[in-house]
Amino acid sequence: MNDLQNGPDWKAKKILKGKTIIVTGCSSGIGLETARTIKKLGGDVIGIDVNKTTEHVDELYIADLSDKRAIQALILALPKDTDGIANIAGLPPTAPAETVIKVNLVGLKYFTEGMIPKLANGASIVNLASLAGFGWSNSIAQIRESAYLDFDEVAGFVQRHGIAEEKGRSYFFSKEALVVWTMQNRWTWRDRGIRMNAVSPGPVDTPILKDFLETLGERAEEDRRVMDRPATPEDIAPVVAFLLSDMTTWIRGTNIPADGGMSSNILCGMHDL
After folding, report:
1. Is residue 74 over pLDDT 70?
2. Which terminus of the chain is more exposed, N or C, with fewer CB under 10 A?
């Protein structure tokens, strides 16, 4: 029986052997599966989460990524010469709007930028964005205003733009801005060979899927009618691992949709194709 019939045995290829990867949000969902996948591919995992876990991590740091001081302490505590960051931690749209923006965007950016001096040359940063960020081009003014947003400015930003008033808007905006930030940093650390990319899943069957269904209502139902099934963490983690590997050194500032075809479906609908 040939390889096509057997399916690709990618898990047997130790493409992350010798690498140490930081995984935020490592205790559940896509973060947990990403940590497991990294281990299977030969890498070591430094996990970061608000919850304690011992699964698939070599070291664990407990930290609240909505808290600037906690992130500062975390950056000081983490070791040097790590080979990558998988920014998976995030809050669903049912969480308070200010906290969503802090964790999903402001804290993620602050942590990543603070870690740049401690990363090894050639490191890879992978941000977990979302299909929810698809409409980023309609939010350019807000995204520009949020570019240098500090933690204590989030409340004012949310109020000015009525983000808390529109159901799920905090989550959508955080992912739109994250996609743009990823593109903008395509060459920021090129002199050290450090690259940044994003992965955008559609609906994923994780513990927070119900939060999305509750928040998005009819929009979520439309997605469910079009799609054959929601993704699983096992569908997404290999894409993250691939971007963390040395096979992707020429992929920079790219947002890879891992959404079962939903973004292509939206684009075809938009252009009557």
Report:
1. yes
2. N
Total tally of structural domains belonging to the chain: 1
Is 6 a domain residue?
Answer: no
- Check if the beta carbon of residue 45 is closer than 8 Å to that of residue 58: yes
Mean pLDDT across 84-96: 96
Which ranges of the chain would DSSP assign to H, the alpha helix? 3-6, 29-40, 68-77, 97-101, 108-115, 140-146, 154-160, 169-184, 209-216, 218-226, 233-244, 262-270
Its domain, for residue 149, covers 16-270
> What is d(CA 3, CA 16) in angstroms, rounded to the nearest whole number?
22
pTM above 0.90, yes or no: yes
CATH number of domain containing 42: 3.40.50.720
Q: How far apart are CA 61 and CA 115, in angstroms?
A: 14
* 153 CB-near residues (< 8 Å, 6+ apart): none
Dihedral sign computed on CA atoms, order 212, 217, 219, 225: positive
Asked, for residue 187, whether it belongs to a domain, the answer is yes
The CA distance from 163 to 106, in Å, is 15
Residue 1 lies in a domain: no
C-alpha closest to that of 76 among 49, 47, 114? 114
The DSSP 8-state label assigned to residue 38 in this structure reads H
Q: How close are the terminal C-alpha atoms of the chain, in Å?
A: 39
- 10-19 pLDDT, tens digit each: 555 799 999 9
Structure tokens belonging to residue 90: 């995030």
The answer to whether position 2 is within a domain reads no
Summarised one tens digit per residue, pLDDT across range 177-226 is 999 999 999 999 999 999 999 999 998 887 777 776 776 666 666 666 77
